[in-house]
Design a protein that fits this description.
The protein is an alpha/beta fold. It has one domain: Rossmann fold (3-Layer(aba) Sandwich), CATH 3.40.50. Helix content is 51%, strand content 18%. The chain contains seven helices and five strands. Strands 3-2-1-4-5 form a five-stranded parallel sheet, sandwiched between helices. Pfam families: Usp.
């Protein structure tokens, strides 16, 4: 089974990677695709640099840095994986990776969001869940592991 793990270098990404390894330890035969989606360069960046290759190189290096913690976890467990770094809208890009890589399932960390932000743009994990053609497993953070200044109690009331 080929499983996509969208990662962003945070402890929440490491949590989803460790959860995926628990499935392997329980007997699931899987290989993983670690994916990171970088934002496209801003209009200002395009105007000041005017070098598309430089933008692509910066995005690739940044994406590789974001993938590195999860890659180290999988490498230490001797589990097969590949990496993909892409640029664009996170959901659209991940849907493209699902198709291009022949992914059977996605495991993604759920990010707690405030009510207003969730209503305005939704989360990547929830939008991916809605539009993916394969099963999407949302992994909640461990209590106390919520980023962005929220404690576990606040996150549970806002998520």
């Amino acid at each position: 089974m080929k499983i996509l793990l969208p990662v962003d270098g945070t402890s929440l990404s490491e949590n989803e990677t460790r959860f995926a390894l628990r499935l392997v330890a329980e007997g699931l035969r899987a290989e993983f695709v670690l994916a990171n989606v970088q934002e496209p360069p801003s209009f200002y960046e395009l105007l000041t640099t005017q070098d598309p290759e430089a933008h692509a190189e910066v995005a690739l290096q940044s994406g590789e840095d974001m993938v590195a913690p999860a890659a180290a976890i999988l490498r230490a467990a001797n589990v097969p994986f590949t990496t993909v770094v892409t640029t664009g809208d996170p959901v659209r890009s991940l849907l493209d990776v699902i198709e291009a890589e022949g992914v059977d399932m996605v495991i993604i960390g759920a990010r707690p969001m405030g009510v207003l932000r969730s209503a305005v743009d939704g989360s990547t994990s929830r939008r991916l869940f809605q539009y993916a053609s394969v099963p999407v497993l949302l992994v909640n953070p461990h209590p106390g592991e919520v980023e962005g200044g929220l404690d576990a109690e606040q996150a549970s009331t806002q998520g």
